[in-house]
Write a structure and sequence with these properties.
The chain is built from nine helices and five strands, in the order E-E-E-H-E-E-H-H-H-H-H-H-H-H. It has helices at about 30-35, 65-75, 85-90, 95-105, 105-110, 120-130, 150-160, 165-175, 185-195, and strands spanning about 5-15, 15-20, 25-30, 45-55, 60-65. Helix 2 crosses helix 3.
Length: about 200
């Protein structure tokens, strides 16, 4: 099992790159987000990896964080989700935003991810519940409740031009700072105020 690679970046051909480790070149498929963090060719790169063995190929997938690799592994446990689709999900959204989509059962946002159709989105929501957490990294279960006020607030923020993922984050933060019974108007006003103050 190859769990980690540390070596010289010698080739970049999205979605793959090649890392030279002690004279051996390893081809690794990575999410698109990884390319933004790569050094120039010849630079040193370190990736956590997952080796997928199939009848027709042995493919290495690389990740910058253990959280991304864990999410990749969890996605593969979902019926109908293969490595390519899992990589597409990680390329289209951050792990935290994906968790927010699952927590809030937002199938519409999920269908905007590469390769995710309506049925796949519904399976992801059902099978990923409890596997992902949109907390702040402390392992706590998110406290965001799914209710009419939050749905209405997210829709309003989306209509103002914010992405689905951004709207989810803004409403979640507002709910964490306001009373549980805050209505949609209060959530929207607070979310926009916090956004403008940054």
């Amino acid at each position: 099992m190859i769990a980690r690679l540390h070596g010289q970046l010698i080739e970049v051909t999205p979605p793959s790159l090649v890392i030279d480790v002690a004279g051996v070149g390893y081809q690794v498929d990575v999410p698109m987000s990884v390319f933004d963090q790569l050094p120039a060719l010849g630079g040193t790169v370190t990736l956590l990896t997952e080796l997928i063995i199939r009848d027709d190929a042995h493919t290495l997938y690389g990740f910058q964080t253990s959280a991304d690799r864990a999410l990749f592994r969890d996605l593969l446990k979902v019926s109908g989700v293969g490595p390519r689709l899992a990589l597409g999900v990680l390329s289209g959204v951050s792990g935290e935003d994906f968790a927010l989509m699952i927590d809030s059962k937002d199938s519409q946002a999920l269908t905007r991810l590469p390769g995710v159709g309506k049925k796949t989105a519904e399976r992801l929501i059902v099978e990923m519940q409890g596997r992902v957490h949109s907390g702040d990294g402390d392992g706590a279960t998110p406290t965001m409740s799914v209710n009419d006020a939050s749905q209405e607030a997210r829709q309003a923020l989306t209509s103002l031009g914010y992405s689905q993922a951004e709207s989810l984050k803004m409403v979640r933060q507002a709910q964490g700072e306001l009373p549980d019974d805050a209505n949609a108007q209060v959530l929207i006003k607070h979310a926009l105020k916090q956004k403008m103050s940054r």
